[in-house]
Amino acid sequence: MTYDLDCSKKIAVKIAKAMANLKALDKIWKSKAITLETKFSILKTCVFSTMLYGCETWTVRKLRESRILSFEKKRYRKILRIG
Fold first, then answer.
1. Sequence-distant (≥ 6) Cβ neighbours of residue 57 within 8 angstroms
2. Would the pTM count as exceeding 0.85?
3. Which of 13, 19, 20, 56 has the maximum number of C-beta atoms within 10 A of its C-beta?
4. Dihedral angle of Cα 40, 28, 32, 34, to the nearest 10 degrees
């Protein structure tokens, strides 16, 4: 936490860690043998939980909120193979 309550760096680090987890599970996302329900479950438990760990202490403003939501939407689109 900084003196001005700016959590931008902390949020960027958490998104980077979630991206690393996402990349590590790349074979799962590409697999056609795994159902979408299972993929979504893995996404929530392995990727989103990493990103949102400790988020209770963040001060979230509109820009940060939109960044977090866009990360989430992009991951769903990747699993669904949209765009």
1. 1, 7
2. no
3. 19
4. -50
**Average pLDDT per block of 10 residues along the chain, 83 residues long:** 72 90 92 94 92 82 87 91 81
Q: Spell out a b/e string for 37-73, using b for 16 or more CB atoms within 10 Å of the CB, else e.
A: eebeebbeeebbebbeeeeeebeeeeebeebbeebbe
What's the pLDDT at 4?
A: 66
Q: Which residue has the tokens 């940060």?
A: 64
Tokens representing 1? 């936490």
**Structure tokens, 80:** 């669904």
Strand (E) or helix (H) holding 22: helix 8-24
Which of 27, 82, 72 has the alpha carbon at shortest distance from 49? 72
Query: What is the dihedral sign for C-alpha 57, 62, 64, 68?
Result: positive
